[in-house]
Amino acid sequence: MQETSPCSLREKGNKFFEAQQFAAAAECYAEALDKIKADLDSSEDLQIPVRLNLAASLLRTGARIEEVEDLCSEVLALQPSNAKALFRRGCARQILAKRELHASDVYQARFGPVVLGNSRQSLMVAGVTGVRCCKLPSPAPDFTSESLGLPVRQEGSLASCEAGAAEPSGPFGTEGAPRGSRRAA
């Protein structure tokens, strides 16, 4: 049997993940994590991405969802504001029907002070209007701003208000409305 390092197993898992072979990727990441746990001198630099990659692979397969929640919680014990860990744990909790906990994790991942792993993740967390986990096997629902109770941006509503098509309303009339939207009486 060939001796492999956690780093090489992680790279192998990354290749499987890119090829959308999520079960094979999960096996590589799990083996890498076992080797990391056995090495008492291993650093956070490797164990955090391996745990997160294993969690992502398991989410994609729809298997061992409780383990996904545990893996992400372990990462959050080391980095409490890790956006990937919060988001993936939120996805797992959604599947496990832990609604209140999942909404808190996903909201924190999107709006809280976060530690972003890379630029793609920062774009995903900061730039989406409809929050969505990864593509999961069928009975898992998609995350949207509406399902999470987050404000939904209405297309054209600000433009029509500024054009005078609609008057700002509410208990205080135009008070509290954006300055550019107030019209003289």
UniProtKB/TrEMBL annotation:
InterPro entries: AIP/AIPL1/TTC9, TPR-like_helical_dom_sf
Segments crossing the lipid bilayer: none
Region of interest (Disordered), ranges: 159-185
Alphabetic keyword roster: Repeat, TPR repeat
Stretch forming the signal peptide: none
UniProt keyword Repeat, yes or no: yes
Top-level taxon in the UniProt lineage: Eukaryota
PANTHER family: ARYL HYDROCARBON RECEPTOR INTERACTING PROTEIN RELATED, TPR_REGION DOMAIN-CONTAINING PROTEIN
Protein name per Swiss-Prot or TrEMBL: FKBP70 protein
Gene name for this UniProt entry: FKBP70
